[in-house]
């Protein structure tokens, strides 16, 4: 006996959120696809365009703060720039410190800079 779309929808409606998440992960693994990519590639519900999650971030220093020396040290650590170049980037705020970072890398770098006293944005 084949399941209809209606049967599947009713079964999913009875699941908890965690069970639905696990079902989606299992389907992604079984079929080798990403649900996010399928949503972007296919038509969105109600004809609205699906928003793609940002995967690359630019780290932008908006202000050095009061502890400029500490911020310069962190900029050097993150970028591998020399002292003069790092100081120039910090003095030239707002300035893009690093481009095309993954979400985890960008969050870690932002945390380090904010801990040093800088104001930072991810774009």
UniProtKB/TrEMBL annotation:
Q: Which residues form the Large ribosomal subunit protein bL12 C-terminal domain?
A: 57-123
Q: In what residue span(s) does the Large ribosomal subunit protein bL12 oligomerization domain sit?
A: 4-51
CDD domains reported for this sequence: Ribosomal_L7_L12
What Pfam families does the annotation carry?
Ribosomal_L12, Ribosomal_L12_N
Q: Say which domain of life the source belongs to.
A: Bacteria
This protein's UniProt keywords: Ribonucleoprotein, Ribosomal protein
Q: Which GO terms describe its cellular component?
A: cytosolic large ribosomal subunit
| Stored Gene3D superfamilies | 3.30.1390.10, Single helix bin (1.20.5.710)
Q: Which GO terms describe its molecular function?
A: mRNA binding; structural constituent of ribosome
The reply to whether NAD figures as a keyword in the UniProt entry is no
Any transmembrane segments, and where? none
Q: What does this protein do?
A: Forms part of the ribosomal stalk which helps the ribosome interact with GTP-bound translation factors. Is thus essential for accurate translation.
This chain's protein is named Large ribosomal subunit protein bL12
Q: What's the source species for this entry?
A: Halomonas heilongjiangensis
Taxonomy-wise, where does this protein's organism fall, top ranks first?
Bacteria, Pseudomonadati, Pseudomonadota, Gammaproteobacteria, Oceanospirillales
